[in-house]
Design a protein that fits this description.
Two copies of one chain form a homodimer.
Chain A: E1 2-3, E2 16-20, H1 25-36, E3 40-47, H2 55-66, E4 69-74, H3 77-81, H4 111-125, E5 130-132, H5 148-154, H6 157-160, H7 163-166, E6 172-174, H8 182-191, H9 214-226
Parallel strand pairs in A: 2-3, 2-5, 3-4, 5-6
Antiparallel strand pairs in A: 1-4
Helix pairs in contact in A: 1-2, 1-8, 8-9
Amino acid sequence: MTTGRDKEQRREGQAGAVVILSGGLDSATCLGIACAEGHHVTALSFDYGQRHHRELAAAARLAAHYGVAHHIYELPFFRQLGGSALTDDAISVPTEGVDKAHIPSTYVPGRNLIFLSIATALAEVTRSEWIYIGVNALDYSGYPDCRPEFMDAFANVATVATRAGVEGMHIEVKTPLLHLTKGEIVARGTALLVPYEMTTSCYVGEEEACGVCDSCRLRLAGFAEAGRVDPIRYQLRAKN
Amino acid sequence: MTTGRDKEQRREGQAGAVVILSGGLDSATCLGIACAEGHHVTALSFDYGQRHHRELAAAARLAAHYGVAHHIYELPFFRQLGGSALTDDAISVPTEGVDKAHIPSTYVPGRNLIFLSIATALAEVTRSEWIYIGVNALDYSGYPDCRPEFMDAFANVATVATRAGVEGMHIEVKTPLLHLTKGEIVARGTALLVPYEMTTSCYVGEEEACGVCDSCRLRLAGFAEAGRVDPIRYQLRAKN
């Protein structure tokens, strides 16, 4: 499925960028940064059977807001693969707060690696030089695929896996949020006028955010740290 | 979709391996090698809208022959992505012979990177230590993602992208065919009693192999080099 309006002609000399857009706070900020940096952006979202499927509608709203092309690719196999509270209804979403000593049950095996690989293919086809992904090492230290070690390991792969590597060009992965706190992300996005009211972060995926899952807790703490009020609606607002 | 019989209990100390199985000659040989090496194998195939969709039936036959678990994951986005004669009906499959100076139109952007990434996720979930992929640098020198440079770049990624990297374990990619000629692959598989009559390689994807597409030409040359007769049926047999 391809949604959103068609791209306008790329301006001469303007570099193409693929932005992985979940519809949450981090990826929305990434999209705002990529657009502010003057790239010709193609946004890419994934329907992987996630419990919080409504984030795809948020992604579409964000892409329309920025006037960029938007693709939603279906990855039905994630539900067959299982192993995560986000793709297996039998595993409940934790609401007791973040435990940094263990990998959370909301971790989806291989997700960022697979997302980056597909973004690489789209970058190749659209002749884009950049891939933006909103991974964040500090808040999500429990997710193996949000670690700087992983991003470093992947750094060279996109170029050598594709036509770019044969033709002497580069596809590079940009992670502008990697070392920011959630509060710094909110501050950065607020300065860029990112429309956070269009985003959704709650893992439970209901109309109003639950306010107590790990994702809601991190988001609320981020807005508090930045001295801002989160514009979306919550059922509860955990004090963290 | 999950097909094939269920895995028997893994024997103590037996390492798990995910084998990427297209149903063609190379991946069948890879499967034969992984089984001969004593691994507890999970075979993984992809339905990516390929023109030669019938290779999936060949993969299922091979998995059943070896008595290993077999998963077929659907990747419908490859047709949206386009850019290849194998996934876009508007681009015809070349039949004039292999031109090593250019990337062939049968190259599918990002394919091996995406396949390896998904195999990595399956290795994580099945606690497998090995991923086997039948890439071959000599015959397919025109495909960017069959180059040793790519395999080297990916080598460290599977481990650091996953739980394995956090828990001090490894997921490693094995490419036993990387530097073999097609003839050497046939000789190796023949010695291992790989049932080549179950495989299919033709890109056109009809009941009988066309005999003139790049894939048929390479396969026929491989059997000729090994001094063997290819057991599958052809409409024509190109002299290369």
